[in-house]
Amino acid sequence: MYQKKRYFYLLQLLGLLILNQFFAVTEALAADTPPTNALTNPYGLDALWANGDWIARGTLLILLIMSMASWYMLVVKLLEQNRLFRCSLDAKKAFWQQTLNTQSLAQLPVDSAYYFLAQSGIHAKEDYQGQLMAHIPLNTWLENNLNQAFDQVQARLQIGLALLGTVGSTAPFIGLFGTVWGIYHALTAIGIAGQASIDKVAGPVGEALIMTAIGLAVAVPAVLIYNWLLRRNKNAMADLHAFANDLEKTLLGGKAPQR
């Protein structure tokens, strides 16, 4: 046991000596190596903003605003969809166990679409009286009111998706506009210089390539976000449609679903 501990301590000491020598050699090499200036890219994004004209800067600002709008819309729609999905199965089950009236709405979250649909259906049945009963059947009256409420919820969920689709479809063309503008600068520089030297062409061409890359970087996330949110909306609307059908059936005197 003593021998094992002794070997263990010797290995530790040997490891410390090796590390000490390694750091000593590294410091010596660093001291002998003359410092070098960091290479700067004269045709990067900073140079594009510093040397570009107002059209190039405006194109960059438009792409930046479009990108910020896409990510902002992602956060807003996720919060809105999460509020919709927050109406859990337990809450809906408790709602169906109650007699459908204004008091039963307390079982649902007030800020949810389920509450809005249930409130529209219950109020529609309560308002079905007087001359209305002689001119329109109850099922048609309830169906019209629930469809109207359902369309309002669907329209609210789709707010902002058109913006994402617009960004995804137009950002590449805005980047392409920057590309064309950069190529125009390159041709202008060649014409002024009288020769196609690399120093006259590299800057504008680099500007053109940066614009193309930024346009794609803005468009691709917007398209992915649009498709993802659209699929989540379809799932939410399918659940809401089933809830509206059960609500109409129950308000017409049918048996409440056992959910």
Question: TL;DR?
Answer:
With 259 residues, the protein is mostly helical. It has nine helices and no strands. The chain has one domain.
Biggest pleated sheet: none
User: What coarse outline follows from CA principal-axis ratios?
Assistant: rod-shaped
Number of helices: 9
Number of domains: 1
Portion of residues in beta strands equals under 5%
Uncertain runs are 1-11, 21-39
Reading the helices and strands in chain order gives HHHHHHHHH
Could you tell me how far the N terminus lies from the C terminus, measured between alpha carbons in angstroms?
A: 68 Å
Please give the radius of gyration in angstroms: 33 Å
What's the pLDDT, averaged over the residues?
Answer: 76
Number of strands: 0
Structural class: mainly alpha
Percent helix, as a range, is over 70%
